[in-house]
C-alpha cells in the first residue's frame, strides 16, 4: 500500500507523499514512509475491540433497567463515532518497538487507554462549557435535551452536567475493566500498572491546572506550557509509549520515549490550541474560536499577550471567556493573534518540537519499522486539521 494512501486512511490527511527513506522536513510540508507496518489495520482492530466491548457493557447496563438505555447508547455512540485512536496506537508501537511480536491481548490492553481519553473528553466538555463534540451535542447537552424532551422534574442543565460526570466516570471504570479482561499475563499486567496509574494521576493534575490557569487569568507562556504538558502531552504520547514498553518488559526504553514523547506531546497540544482558535468547524466539530469563547489560557494566548500592542491586549483580555461573543468579535481577536505574530511563533515552536522528538528515534534499540511509524505518527499528530 502506498504510504500516501496509508496516511489518508489513518486520519484522512493528504499531505504525505512517499519518497523513500526516513522522514525529513522539507519546504512546504513533511514527507515520510512507513514500511511493512499496517497502521490502518491496527486502527481497524482497535475499533473492532471497542465496538465489541461497548456492545457487551451496554447489554449489562440495560440488564439493570431500561432507564440505562440512554446511557448505554450515549457511551456506545461516543466511543465508536470516530476518534483518532492516538493513545492506543502509541502504546502498541511502544510495545512493538523492541521487536516484540504482535498479540491481540496486548492490543486490547492498549485499547484501555482510549477509554481514559473518553473520560477526559466528556469531562473536558463539561468544564469548558463546550456545547459540541465532533459536530454533535456534547454528552452533557445530550442529556440536558433528554431532560427537556421528557419533561422531567428539576433543572435540565444540572441533570445534563450530572449525567456527563457519571458517564465520564464510567469510561474510566471501563478502562480498568478492559485492561483486566485483556488477557495479558499476570506479569505483564503488573508491569504496566505503575505507568497506568501515573498517566491518570497526571491527566487529572493537568485538568486541574487548566481550570486553575483560567481562574488566575495567567499570561505566562511557561505556565501555559506546563498545562499543555500535563493536560494532554504526557497522557497522549509519552505515557502510552511507556505503557507499551512496560508491557514488553522494556522499561529501559522509557527515557528514549520521554525524549520523543514530551516534546511531541507539547507540539500536539499546541496544534490543538491553534485549532481551538482558527480551526474549521466542519472539520474540528466545534465552533470557530471556541477556545476564545471558553477563555482558555493557552500558550497561543500567552504568546499574544507578550507580542501584541497594549490596545490589542486589552481587547483580547475583554473578549476572552465572553459567552455571548459575536462572530465579528471572534474575527477581531483572531486578527490580533495572527497580526502580532503569535500564531506564526507557535507554528515555529510546533516544528521545532516535532523535529526534536523525531531526532530521539535514532536509538538503535528501536526497531526500524517502528521508528518509521513513530516518525509518521509525529507528523500526523502535529500537522492535523482536527
CATH architecture: Orthogonal Bundle
CATH homology-level superfamily: Farnesyl Diphosphate Synthase
Number of helices: 17
Across the major sheet, the strand order is 1-2
Shape: flat
Please state the CA-atom Rg, rounded to the nearest Å. 21 Å
User: Considering DSSP H and I runs of 4 or more, what fraction of the residues is helical?
Assistant: over 70%
Mean pLDDT: 88
Number of extended strands = 4
CATH class: Mainly Alpha
What does the main sheet amount to? Answer: 2 strands, antiparallel
| Strand portion | under 5%
* Terminal Cα span: 24 Å
CATH topology: Farnesyl Diphosphate Synthase
Number of domains: 1
Instruction: Classify the secondary structure makeup into a structural class.
Output: mainly alpha
Give unreliable regions as ranges: 1-36
Note the run of SSEs as H and E.
Answer: HEEHHHHEEHHHHHHHHHHHH
What does this structure look like?
- By secondary structure, the chain is mainly alpha-helical.
- The protein has a single domain (about 5-380), classed as Farnesyl Diphosphate Synthase (Orthogonal Bundle), CATH 1.10.600.10.
- About 70% of the residues lie in helices and about 5% in strands.
- The strands form two sheets. The chain has a two-stranded antiparallel ribbon with strand order 1-2. A two-stranded antiparallel sheet has the order 3-4.
- α5 packs parallel to α8 (about 185-215).
- The longest helix has about 30 residues, at about 185-215.
- The chain is flat.
- The two termini are about 25 Å apart.
Amino acid at each position: 500500500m502506498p504510504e500516501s494512501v496509508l496516511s489518508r486512511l489513518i486520519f484522512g490527511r493528504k499531505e504525505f507523499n512517499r519518497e523513500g527513506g526516513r522522514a525529513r522536513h522539507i519546504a512546504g510540508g513533511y514527507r515520510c514512509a512507513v514500511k511493512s507496518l499496517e497502521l490502518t489495520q491496527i486502527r481497524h482492530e482497535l475499533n473492532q475491540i471497542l465496538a465489541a466491548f461497548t456492545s457487551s457493557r451496554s447489554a449489562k447496563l440495560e440488564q439493570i433497567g431500561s432507564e440505562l438505555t440512554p446511557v448505554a447508547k450515549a457511551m456506545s455512540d461516543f466511543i465508536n463515532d470516530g476518534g483518532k485512536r492516538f493513545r492506543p496506537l502509541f502504546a502498541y508501537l511502544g510495545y512493538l518497538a523492541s521487536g516484540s511480536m504482535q498479540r491481540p491481548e496486548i492490543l486490547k490492553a492498549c485499547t484501555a487507554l482510549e477509554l481514559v481519553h473518553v473520560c477526559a473528553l466528556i469531562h473536558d466538555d463539561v468544564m469548558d462549557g463546550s456545547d459540541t463534540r465532533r459536530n454533535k451535542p456534547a454528552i452533557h447537552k445530550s442529556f440536558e435535551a433528554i431532560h427537556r424532551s421528557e419533561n422531567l422534574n428539576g433543572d435540565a442543565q444540572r441533570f445534563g452536567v450530572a449525567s456527563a460526570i457519571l458517564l465520564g466516570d464510567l469510561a474510566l471504570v471501563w478502562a480498568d475493566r478492559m485492561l483486566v479482561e485483556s488477557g495479558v499475563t499476570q506479569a505483564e499486567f503488573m508491569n504496566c500498572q505503575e505507568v497506568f496509574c501515573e498517566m491518570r494521576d497526571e491527566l487529572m493534575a493537568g485538568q486541574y491546572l487548566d481550570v486553575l490557569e483560567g481562574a488566575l487569568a495567567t499570561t505566562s507562556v511557561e505556565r501555559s506550557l506546563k498545562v499543555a504538558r500535563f493536560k494532554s502531552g504526557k497522557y497522549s504520547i509519552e505515557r502510552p509509549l511507556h505503557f507499551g514498553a512496560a508491557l514488553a518488559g522494556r522499561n529501559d526504553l522509557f527515557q528514549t520515549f520521554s525524549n520523543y514523547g514530551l516534546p511531541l506531546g507539547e507540539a500536539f497540544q499546541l496544534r490543538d490550541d491553534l485549532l481551538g482558535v482558527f480551526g474549521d468547524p466542519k472539520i474540528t466539530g466545534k465552533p470557530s474560536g471556541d477556545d476564545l469563547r471558553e477563555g482558555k489560557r493557552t500558550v497561543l494566548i500567552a504568546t499574544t499577550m507578550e507580542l501584541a500592542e497594549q490596545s490589542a491586549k486589552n481587547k483580547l483580555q475583554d473578549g476572552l471567556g465572553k459567552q455571548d461573543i459575536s462572530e465579528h468579535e471572534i474575527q477581531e481577536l483572531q486578527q490580533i493573534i495572527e497580526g502580532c505574530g503569535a500564531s506564526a511563533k507557535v507554528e515555529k515552536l510546533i516544528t521545532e518540537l516535532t523535529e526534536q522528538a523525531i531526532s530521539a528515534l535514532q536509538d538503535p534499540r528501536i526497531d526500524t519499522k517502528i521508528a518509521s511509524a513513530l516518525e509518521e505518527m509525529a507528523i500526523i499528530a502535529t500537522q492535523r486539521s482536527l
